[in-house]
Amino acid sequence: MSAWSSPWSWAAGAAMPGSAPTTPRLAAGSTSTPPTPMSRAAATSVPAAPRISKPAAPMPCSTAAWACSWANGSRSSQDPRPRSHYVAKALGHWTMPSPHHTAPLHLFPIPSRDPPQDLVNSTGTTIPIASQRLALLRAMELSRAVEERLRSLYRQGSVVGGVYLGIGQEALSAAATLARQPGDIYAPLIRDSAGRLAAGEAIEDVFRCYLGRRTGHMRGRDGNVHRGDLEAGVLPMVSHLGAMLAVVSGGLLARRLRGEPETAVGIASLGDGGMATGAAHEALNAAAVLRLPLVLVVANNGWSYSTPNEQSFACADLVDRAAGYGVAGHRCDGTDPDDCLQTLERAISAARAGGGVQLVVAKLLRCSGHGEHDDARYIPEAMRAAYADPVEVARQRLCDEGLIDSAGLTALQAELGAAVDAALAVVEAEPEADPAQEDWAVRSGRSAPGPTRPTLSAPAPTSYGKAISLALAHSLAEQPELFIYGQDVGGDFGGAFKITKGLAEAFPGRVINAPISEDAIAGIGIGAGLHGAHAVLEYQFADFSTIAFNQLVNQAGTTFWRTGRTCPLTVRLPCGGTPGAGPFHSQMPEAWFSHHPGLMVVAPGTVADAYGMLRQALRRLDPVIYCEHKLLYERLRDETFDPAAEQIPLERAVIRRPGRDCTLVAWSAMLHDALAAAGLLAEREGLEVEVLDLRCLRPLDLDAVVASVSRTGRLVVASEDFPFSGIAAELCAQVAEAAFTWLDAPPRRISAADVPVPYHPALWAATRPGPQSIAAAVRQTVSF
Fold first, then answer.
1. I want to staple 227 with a disulfide (CB 3.0 to 4.6 A). Which of 123, 209, 242, 429 is the partner?
2. Do residues 658 and 633 both lie within one domain?
3. Which residues are catalytic?
């Protein structure tokens, strides 16, 4: 044990800048409620272990260790008062120094309790607590060994990115996954190395991700803590705190929709900092509404990076929030391995038995900086001294109780150390990520199989909005994995624009109302896609999708790139300006999402495309942003629409009017203004303008545009979006690069005015391109 260094990277007991020179003490009235222990005298079923000579391991929290030792000697076996009473008496009263006065911080002593009894899970199976405690010790020791090696690699400069350790939080993390069963979904967070390893993660995979090896799950495309193994039920996390909670919920919902027994649970990790995010609030509320078997494990280590608790939230204890969400709450001492085991088993069993969402909040301490680049000198010395190291607690307690002896502990550490050395040696010999070996694929480009020419009918004439409704109905009938999730889509209401009206009755349980939680809606859709379902998300207005940008771009848009796993998801965005809608119900989201390479963005402009492109999107195995223009819902009708007609491939642009004098590119509602402009120019000036419907904005069908420009020699792009950094600007730039020798004039774009969308109809009309202004732009280009 002498080879093990203190989890603190500085000398124990050193004075820290800004630390108060007071003696630390536990605050009275701790809200922790551990199970009532047996007295040692009454615990006849657990034989007393002979006191052994324990290995000389360093004790990072020496003040607390002394206090606990003093408490043990001062308390008789008949004393009803808990040991924490004596530890508090030894340590004195202490509150965290802060410029803002708030409630005192609750701290835990080094736990010392009688051996816990065996656990009984939700199926009635007795779990021998001795074997679980030894398994927990093993997981914690392995995590400590791996993380100490990662720390060394970082200091040697072998790790390209950051290193983020969970030292001091191992008991909570590992206990959560030791209570898992096959089929459970686990979303670890930044400090869950112990939980990942307890869940079966190979040591080699830890080093592969940190060292950027091509053999790792991420293949060097992502690294460090973002790794995951979906086959093993472990989700790859993103850096944005709170985001994974909705993804776990989506996986659970997908299983419910398939009719699977709800015996599997989801376990999501979060910290006290993450609990301040809107994503966590939205997801927790949505999971509670759906009564999903979700366990949220919150590690309150006192610090959101360098921000203390009292500057992050005002409630006395984060577990108090459970009542507000209508879920069960559990307090846990994160420094006490036995309390972690029992509390997590109790919470997970409750969720597995149909008890809905369970919120577990543990208090502990992060015994390192935020990352290895951070020395954490903002944490007062008194606070560090008042917390226990759970690994040391487990070592000491299991030795005291005879479950392991000094020789066994030394052998265990030697075995795990050798395993770490061997794994690292394997990985160091493996190839690093190599640009020459990359395929650079950001989307799978694959679709689920389906009927090629279905026998379907549609009313005549069919409106643009009705075509979307028909596509949803026909696809729901053919694809059992589909479901619709969004605000007001269920019941008899049918969404803000009545597109889903009647579908909830026709497809019971598959058209689901969501809270006003755009981020959670996206996250749940993503989680469902990762677990075999395909969510059709509806936002009332495209403008509101900005709230879900993190999930749609950083999560859905990167999943295939990072993991090689597909994430089928269709996001319906009612977009575009209408008179009186104003700046918050009129925006075109096309450029926002097209900027990201992992997303496909489509914008149908005809009735046939509204149907056909949505049908194809619903079979895609990649995320698709489907932009449907509100102005077309009822105004655009087609007498000849046939849903059984052959569909144009999703990525292909289409010539709507042939011509020779200029190429005019448009999409969505602007397509009809472009066609009207071409008609005016042909009638009045004899110009033959080729109108190309771009249809798919990401990826761009650049070949079709260049082919047209090679015939006409000119390009005008009409867009309803803002001019700066829009699709029109991008298309002009790409054509200038790819077709410069064919151009007889500079490419020209005509877009909406560079101002927010106005409310008044006259102002709105003045800012939006129309047939006359588009015709003028073409005329100027032709006469160049």
1. 209
2. no
3. 585
